[in-house]
Write a structure and sequence with these properties.
mainly alpha, 16 helices, 4 strands, 68% helix
Length: 373
């Protein structure tokens, strides 16, 4: 507890830096919010849709022709490639027309189409509903023996583009999409706060006091390090809650759109990973200016290639593959999952804990090697 109080005093010495990072966060929030449509302005969207047409039947081709009048259709040969491009947002949705598509449609079966969507994008949801709408018209046409050419003309005359104007679903999707951009910025700013305010302050304290273990006399070096890491986490946890008043006053509707416990859980994972990285990197140098440069470069680089600021659909495949070795990539994915599903992704959460353990173990190994030398 004494160590926690000492670290709290260290943080109080850096009010300007904390205020500066909060201002940066607020500016980023305003910029990103200006790029979003209002929840009541959902317009038609022509988006990229991937497809695999295994049957090449006349009804399957007709379905694609009808969907293609509103969207850019991209043919795929490999299902895994289609799913991968959907995951990195190069396409908004995907579908597979199996070999028996025509037969199932004629027989009136319901589940005749494999559809893949990205639930974090409202356009992807619209695409899925539009596909169902087209199938509904095709079923009606087949039952009434309407020729395909006539059916296509009827579909041209009828607006099949499904919209959610003035609907609660539209508002919910809008606010969740807005929240994803909001928290992508916050992940970066929070990591910078932990690196350059909490981390460097604690590194300086440890460098000066670890030899005689001020205020915690009688503890071993390992105990001191353990208590130090715990104190850093508790101090940083206070900082993560700053988002709540900012979000509440800036976008009250979005504040009540999600469950905050999973969001705080993912932010806590970011704290652990960041503290682990500080512990690891601080074993190589104690110079404040060098650490500042390293931490700033690491945080900004990860944010630029992990989807915080630059959409993944415009990043090259090599960059995306490289970003998968970085913890920020999984923090962004876990945050998206938490916002859209109101819970954390267990596999991503475990992976982030493994990142924390890796950095701590690697840091202890470096300390041991340096002490021997």
């Amino acid at each position: 507890m004494n160590l926690f109080k000492v670290y709290l005093k260290i943080i109080k010495r850096e009010p300007l830096q904390i205020i500066l990072y909060l201002i940066i966060f607020i500016v980023l929030t305003i910029l990103f919010s200006k790029t979003k449509d209002t929840p009541m302005s959902f317009e038609k969207e022509r988006v990229n849709i991937g497809y695999i047409n295994e049957g090449e039947g006349k009804f399957g081709n007709f379905f694609l022709k009808t969907l293609g009048k509103d969207h850019e259709l991209i043919a795929y040969d490999d299902e895994n490639k289609l799913k991968e491009d959907l995951y990195v947002s190069k396409i908004y949705g995907g579908l597979i027309l199996n070999r028996d598509f025509d037969e199932k449609l004629i027989n009136g079966e319901k589940e005749i189409l494999q559809v893949f969507t990205d639930k974090t994008r409202y356009a992807s949801i619209l695409f899925q509903n539009q596909g169902e709408e087209i199938l509904h018209f095709m079923n009606a046409g087949i039952k009434n023996d309407i020729p395909l050419d006539q059916l296509f003309q009827d579909l041209e005359a009828i607006e099949t583009k499904v919209q959610f104007q003035n609907d609660d679903i539209a508002k919910s999707l809008y606010y969740k999409e807005w929240l994803i951009a909001f928290f992508n910025s916050y992940l970066y700013v929070l990591m910078m706060l932990i690196f350059n305010v909490v981390g460097i302050g604690f590194i300086e304290f440890q460098r000066k006091n670890i030899a005689n273990r001020i205020l915690v006399s009688g503890t071993s070096r390992k105990e001191f390090i353990g208590k130090s890491l715990m104190s850093q986490f508790l101090i940083s946890f206070i900082l993560i809650l700053f988002y709540m008043p900012i979000l509440y006053f800036y976008q009250k509707e979005a504040f009540f759109e999600v469950h905050h416990l999973p969001i705080i859980g993912n932010l806590s994972l970011l704290l652990l990973v960041s503290i682990g990285m500080v512990f690891f990197i601080s074993n190589f140098t104690h110079h404040k200016s060098i650490l500042n440069a390293i931490f700033t470069g690491v945080a900004l680089s990860m944010a630029m290639i992990s989807g915080n600021f630059v959409p993944r659909e415009i990043l090259s495949q090599n960059v995306i593959q490289f970003s998968k070795i970085l913890p920020m990539y999984y923090l962004v994915n876990n945050m998206d999952f938490a916002i859209m599903n109101n819970r954390l992704d267990p596999s991503l959460s475990i992976l982030l804990l493994l990142f924390f353990i890796f950095f701590i173990v690697a840091g202890l190994a470096v300390k041991k090697i340096k002490s021997r030398n």
